[in-house]
């Protein structure tokens, strides 16, 4: 175990080190290293790339974004720590990872909290999340904006799932947070937390019966090869958060920081469009390779998870945020 993580760290250090020496030789621009855990075809990668190009232009070449896809800089938990201690400047991490620092974030990643993509886009672009996002400064990072990751559904090996009873005894991978484990219990199964990069092998080797995610990740990471039954439970629309190191932000001029933050916010609109344009292609890719997509009556799952919603909204800050999110329906 230790050996494996030591090796991983050494590999990350090499990537970071070589990127550093390359950038210092290649240009005088300040390099912004961003960690991303999926491929360079993913809508979030493309939105971030566009953001980097605009930033470079609007700061007259003072900043150059370099995105490291496919967990090259480590999984999301490791990447967030690198951002926090200033070793890298940016990362895209799923909401549950930030929720581990502040439970108020749980509200925007709860089961069935959005009525659909349009509602989620309104929440992300209306400014209701601004205070929450700025409040993470005390942890060493700031949330710049949120990206959609669509709706998550269950996918399994063997057979599809139609209701809570079908989920009994199923070990399903979840993202690394307590809320995600509770969410899987309310869906009827058992949640096993692990990083994204380990899912394929864990399902293949029978450690898991399946996982839950959106169609784009399902296709992007070829998970249909090991879990070909995709049941459209659409139980979560968990935001992905674009985070930046507080230390890095403090090194920017006021103007550059304002440009950086403005462009990050604007990239959310592009990301939604890119996302919506890729969904059908992702489904088709998976189906062509043998995946079966099954429509599911979501009501029983919604009912089974309504208790969890109540359980998660405890503090005045959570209540206040929940009301603001609901008001934008
Ligand atoms: C989605 C999300 C990622 C997250 C992943 C996961 O793909 O976009 O940010 O890492 O789910 O399940 O871990």
TrEMBL record:
Signal peptide residues on this chain, from the entry's feature table: 1-28
Keyword set includes Transferase: no
Superkingdom in the source lineage: Bacteria
Gene Ontology annotations for the cellular component aspect, listed alphabetically: outer membrane-bounded periplasmic space
SUPFAM superfamilies assigned to the protein according to its UniProt record, in alphabetical order: Periplasmic binding protein-like II
Gene3D superfamilies (UniProt xref): Bacterial extracellular solute-binding protein, family 7
Pfam families for this protein: DctP
Keywords per UniProt: Signal
GO terms of molecular function: carbohydrate binding
Keyword Transmembrane: no
InterPro entries: DctP_fam (IPR018389), TRAP_DctP (IPR004682), TRAP_DctP_sf (IPR038404)
GO biological process: transmembrane transport
NCBIfam families per record: dctP, TRAP_S1
Protein name: TRAP transporter substrate-binding protein
Lineage: Bacteria, Pseudomonadati, Pseudomonadota, Gammaproteobacteria, Vibrionales
